[in-house]
Design a protein that fits this description.
The structure is a homodimer of 147-residue chains.
Chain A: H1 3-18, H2 20-39, H3 46-55, H4 63-69, H5 74-86, E1 90-94, E2 102-106, H6 108-132, H7 136-146
Antiparallel strand pairs in A: 1-2
Helix pairs in contact in A: 4-5
The first copy, chain A, binds a DNA duplex (30 and 30 nucleotides) through residues 29, 32-33, 36, 45, 47-48, 62-64, 72-80, 82-83, 95, 98-102.
DNA sequence: CCACAATAATTTGATATCAATATAATAGGT
DNA sequence: ACCTATTATATTGATATCAAATTATTGTGG
């Protein structure tokens, strides 16, 4: 191996072990699969659960703030609302005060599904925290510092 | 608000603040965007960088172990290899010793792109760790416990 | 009032993701 | 050698993700 190759080999090993982007993607995939499985009986995915959860507010929210809270692109949120609208869990309405804006509203059916899903979340998340050990608050703080 | 509604409202607020799945997805999205931006000049995304990085081995690896390491579905890996093959960065070859299996090989061009991307990663990741503060090793350990 | 900038959301095109299913090849038992 | 179970990957269909470009609406300076 040339010098250039050994340098690259060492660098890639270091990155495999230290890259926070890689570590975050892996954890995100593993957790998504886990909660997707747990929520499947209720017909929603982990991402849809998070979105329904955020939309459970007294006053309807617009898309901008929701996208920001979820750290996702506005256009991704537009796409993510489609299946939820089709399932009748969420209603998207033009804001009469500013017709560029949309009001995102959880329907009665949406609240019903959310209520059932919350029960699943509670047991699954408790099991998760037990499994991973360590200090979950510290982990949350670290993740919050990134997002 | 009925009792059932106040209970749900409290639960959703708790989940917004504590759900590790949500926190992980947010961090993953934010980091992916950040490294996508940094790597764009070299024509690869953050996920493609992680994959190229993993494939930089002396002996070619098969798909199964790579998918496992990345905590992703095998079929996702199949899909992710397509654009890299098209760009000539990776070569996928049938393993003569077991023709069900594939050998994943980084091409010379792939190594070249990887080498340039590694330089970007070093500066970007150093900046990231500085920004988020805290103990990055502890954060990595937490993420590893999940994946 | 009007032209133009700024804001909110959508559309489009490419990649990413997974579950379910299918295809292909090896391994093991008889 | 044959039949079957197992293993390795690929395909399909639905959703997720982002950047870039587009549409629609509001705000603002003149």
């Amino acid at each position: 191996m040339t010098r250039k190759e050994t340098d690259l080999a060492e660098a890639t090993i270091h990155i495999r072990d230290h890259c926070l982007c890689l570590h975050a993607q892996r954890a995100a995939r593993a957790l998504a699969r886990r909660f997707d499985d747990a929520l499947r009986p209720h017909g929603i995915t982990s991402g849809q659960f998070s979105l329904l959860n955020v939309l459970n507010r007294r006053e309807p929210v617009a898309m901008g703030p929701v996208a920001k809270f979820l750290a996702m692109d506005r256009s991704t949120l537009t796409a993510n609302l489609k299946p939820l609208e089709r399932q009748g869990l969420v209603s998207v309405e033009v804001d009469p005060d500013d017709r560029r804006s949309r009001k995102l509203i959880l329907t009665a059916e949406g609240r019903k599904v959310l209520r059932a899903a919350v029960a699943v979340w509670k047991s699954e998340h408790a099991a998760l925290e037990k499994e991973i050990g360590g200090d979950p608050d510290a982990l949350r703080a670290g993740l919050r510092a990134i997002a």
